[in-house]
Amino acid sequence: MVTSARGKGREDPAPPASTPPASTPPASTPPASTPLDGVRDEVVARPSGLFDAQTYRTSVWRIAAQFPRITRITFQAAWRAGRAAHLVTLATQVVAALGAGFGLYSAAGVLRQLLTAGASADRVAAALPTLMMIVVALAVQASAETCGAYLGKRLAARMKRDARGRLLDAACHVELSAFDDPAWHEALERAETAGAPNFDATHGWIMATLHSLMLVVAAAGTLGVLDPVLLVALVVSVLPEGWSALRAARLDYESFHRCGLLRRRLWLLTRLVRGEPRAAAEIRAHTAQRFVMTEVDRIGGLLEAEELRLAAKHARLGSVARALGGVGLGAAYVLLGVFLATGRTPLAVAGAALIAVQVGRRRLAEVVRYGMRAYETGMYVLDYQRVLDDAAARTRPRTDRRVPVDPEVIRVENVSFGYHGSARPALREVSLEIRRGQIIALVGENGSGKSTLAKLLAGLYLPTGGRITWDGVDLAGVDPDSVSRAVAMVPQDTLHWPLTIRDNITLGADGPLDADRLRYAVAASGTDQVVAQMPHGLDTPLSRHYVHGAQASGGQWQRISVARALYRDAPVLVADEPTAALDARAEAQVYASLAELAAGRTCVLITHRMASVKIADHIYVLHEGRLVEEGTHESLLAAGGRYAELYALQASAYADDEPAVGARVSP
Ligand SMILES: Nc1ncnc2c1ncn2[C@@H]1O[C@H](COP(=O)(O)OP(=O)(O)OP(=O)(O)O)[C@@H](O)[C@H]1O
């Protein structure tokens, strides 16, 4: 029999699917002119570093070779989840198998006693003690199985939780650059949706395989004692099932990998449509419903076609396996009949052998089937482990070396940086210096590298060339958390945490809640006006997903983001367009607070509002990743370069006599 051979975790968020041949598109494929035509070839087997492309071209030997690894990783996870439960589960399997084996062997004895010559009553009386022992053995087997099943369930819940926790913990600590790598996203998705949920299943299948294997040994032992030739017949009769289960698992695994990108695309679209209020508004505003639904339908069609293709292959494999298995079993029976007819095997022994063949065959089939399920779900566990190993390689090694708590001088020394997969560097040989108590401003056109430099200064990325030091200590050699703790950041696109306003402001800060500091941060950022409008004040959850939740505007979110940075009380403040969404009054208030806060701190400010740049002590102008000018506002204006040009361009927008239209910035 062919099982569906699907990892159970995969059924949850995204069913497996795969490539329909390019020449036979599925019926639901939209007309040829969809805007996403160019990405049709996304459904291809793309071996990545995190995917063992050889795995699905599997031979029996390869499976056998993988089994110890799968078992080791799974048992380690079970050990972590609950040592006692894991050991007792193992013990119950052994006890259950011993009970069943004893029952089987005794059954052969009972038959022999019943089929020997003599009065029926005497024969039954003689068999009674053995029968009683069989009953006891079966009771022991049943109790052990029930106990094992219960403990297995408890262990399963814990293993799943642990596996998800370890993965998310790894994802929280990898270098930010990992998230610029599509391979990482894909591997993480697979590990989360298929790897983590399959740990408990793999553990269960391994246990079931062991259990059945022990029963096979018991049956084979019985059969071996009765007639070893029948043992060979038993093995041959179950081979077709093993072959078909192997083929089915390979097909599913291959399909799952081939469709990874499709599933992720569908998942992203689904999340946009059902989970993102901003997306909901934009989908309507741009009348993008048809666009989205066409793509959803196209991907759904491809995935469905693949499901159908797999179902047909499974059905074909199943029928061939069943037919061959029937032939094998028939051959075993014929052999037994021949032995009986020729007098090689007495009737009592033949009866016992028949039971042993049936039990052995059923259990051997279970070994193959459960073993294949263990192998199949185990492949996702191996994937999961590969992702964890990859995450470890992408994570800066932990070290006790910390960044200076309150740096006197931060130096950027000849720093270059390129994003993953990007041929063009975002920063080229930039050098600058920031002293404590200074506000420096980074100025430049879109894409000139300001945010990138800010992220490097905050230790979120490490330079690909050059170095950044805090009081001479290279950020590359210190514990990254120590850098993050010393930096308060107002990012350009602040994340809308679905938390209360209070939690939005205080999240991530060390120590217990400081009510005075919270009050100051709320007032200095203008968040007090946001709080005043909210139904539950600071305790209002900022998400429409909650019954008592509220939706903040873009400017209100920005005030909260500034409040978070002010509350953090860190020696280094990095503000990337902190007032882009603020009204004029709030902007003035934020800049006054920043100026006040800058005393005794190091402040990096990025803004396109040239009037605000004036609060900076020193200004650096970036252009296409290079530092092209630096100085004070006055000196840069006097120099008449790019800064002066940008300034004049903005200033002209406010001047009555000088229209901005026509003003140009040098290329
Ligand atoms: N995560 C990323 N992956 C790849 N390239 C990126 C990434 N982030 C930024 N870039 C590229 O790096 C360059 C510099 O981007 P950056 O965001 O630093 O510019 P910026 O000066 O802050 O621009 P803006 O004024 O628009 O905020 C740009 O060419 C941008 O396309």
Automatic annotation (TrEMBL):
<dbReference type="InterPro" id="IPR003593">
    <property type="entry name" value="AAA+_ATPase"/>
</dbReference>
<keyword id="KW-0813">Transport</keyword>
<dbReference type="GO" id="GO:0005524">
    <property type="term" value="F:ATP binding"/>
</dbReference>
<keyword id="KW-0812">Transmembrane</keyword>
<feature type="region of interest" description="Disordered">
    <location>
        <begin position="1"/>
        <end position="38"/>
    </location>
</feature>
<keyword id="KW-0997">Cell inner membrane</keyword>
<keyword id="KW-1133">Transmembrane helix</keyword>
<keyword id="KW-0067">ATP-binding</keyword>
<keyword id="KW-1003">Cell membrane</keyword>
<dbReference type="Pfam" id="PF00005">
    <property type="entry name" value="ABC_tran"/>
</dbReference>
<keyword id="KW-0472">Membrane</keyword>
<feature type="transmembrane region" description="Helical">
    <location>
        <begin position="128"/>
        <end position="151"/>
    </location>
</feature>
<dbReference type="InterPro" id="IPR039421">
    <property type="entry name" value="Type_1_exporter"/>
</dbReference>
<dbReference type="GO" id="GO:0034040">
    <property type="term" value="F:ATPase-coupled lipid transmembrane transporter activity"/>
</dbReference>
<keyword id="KW-0547">Nucleotide-binding</keyword>
<comment type="similarity">
    <text>Belongs to the ABC transporter superfamily. Siderophore-Fe(3+) uptake transporter (SIUT) (TC 3.A.1.21) family.</text>
</comment>
<dbReference type="GO" id="GO:0016887">
    <property type="term" value="F:ATP hydrolysis activity"/>
</dbReference>
<dbReference type="InterPro" id="IPR036640">
    <property type="entry name" value="ABC1_TM_sf"/>
</dbReference>
<feature type="transmembrane region" description="Helical">
    <location>
        <begin position="87"/>
        <end position="108"/>
    </location>
</feature>
<feature type="domain" description="ABC transporter">
    <location>
        <begin position="410"/>
        <end position="649"/>
    </location>
</feature>
<dbReference type="GO" id="GO:0005886">
    <property type="term" value="C:plasma membrane"/>
</dbReference>
<dbReference type="InterPro" id="IPR027417">
    <property type="entry name" value="P-loop_NTPase"/>
</dbReference>
<protein>
    <submittedName>
        <fullName>ATP-binding cassette, subfamily B</fullName>
    </submittedName>
</protein>
<feature type="compositionally biased region" description="Pro residues">
    <location>
        <begin position="14"/>
        <end position="33"/>
    </location>
</feature>
<dbReference type="InterPro" id="IPR003439">
    <property type="entry name" value="ABC_transporter-like_ATP-bd"/>
</dbReference>
